[in-house]
Amino acid sequence: MSNAMPMGQSMLFQALSAFPQGCKGHRTLGKCNSPAAQAVKSEILQYAQTASGPRAIFDFVVNKWGMKALTPEAQRIRGMRTSK
User: In total, how many domains does the chain have?
Assistant: First the structure.
C-alpha cells in the first residue's frame, strides 16, 4: 500500500466511517480531523506500510475496530468479497 499513497490513502479513509471520538457530523474518517481520528489514521497508515494490500488493511481495521469502522458501502463490498 505504501506505493499507493496518497491517492490510496484518501480512498481508504473515504471507505471508513467517522467512528472515532470527535467525528460526529462527519460521514467518513477522511473528513474528520479530531485528535482521536488523527490517531486512528496514523495507526492505519503505520500498518499500511507493511500490509500486503488493501484487503489486508481492511482486515486490520475490521479486526481492531469492528465492522462499524466501515461505511455502509464498504461493508456491502466486504461482505460480497468475504462470503466467497
Answer: 1
